[in-house]
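For the sake of transparency, this paper describes our internal protein records without simplification. The tokens are whole numbers drawn from a learned vocabulary of local backbone shapes. One such record is reproduced below, unchanged from the form in which we store it.

. . .
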Amino acid sequence: MSAVPTGSRRGTPVPADRTLAEDLLLVLFQPGSGTIAGETTLSYVLAGAVLAELGLGGHVRAAAGRLGSTTVSAVPHRPPADHLLRDSWEYVSDRARGVQTVLPATGPTLREPLLDRLVERGDLRRSTRRALGLFSVTTLEEGTTGRRPALLADLRAVLVDGGEPSPRVAALAALLHASGALPQLHPDIPWTSPVITRAEALQDGQWEAGAAAEAVGRTVMAYLVSVTAAASRP
């Protein structure tokens, strides 16, 4: 049986290309408060982003499971180079697993290594201050790379202006909406009826990008079901 991912591997070089999960976490960062929006379901959100990227890259395939569920399985001999993506790929490499199983198994270890990457890239900055003069508190601030404003501009062009998205921007917008965090991006992304309608369409996988995007759309929808179920538990 495949092992559940174990998290960050210290000393591993940061890949040149940013992952969808990194971009999602960066967009969820709130510069005014130094917090991450949607912390209560963040592990599901990040795991959904990893699955979406694996689908976009042709590393996993999604299929209909029993009772309307969705399963994910690894495409043989197509492991991703990025070790955080590879952990999830390996988890489904021995057999197809339900998305509702994959998300809680792979998501909890993603936040910290992804934050480490964002800090190392300069997209975010960590600083330490003394609280009450007694203990140290680590805070997050926006970096100087301009990556977050650029991502917001891409999202705005699709959700507000109605532009045709790339598969990556479509997946990012769909995940943000499915997470329930999209309203917290107001006023950068105005929370209006047209924006909601456009985000829902993207969440349903309605964009022109071929078979890979279709697989991503199914994965995102299954992810939404899982998050909704998790959030409704007492």
Q: What stands out?
A: The mean pLDDT is 84. The first helix runs from residue 20 to 28. The beta strands are 29-30, 35-36, 60-64, 70-74, 97-98, 124-131, 135-142. The CA atoms of residues 100 and 229 lie 9 Å apart.
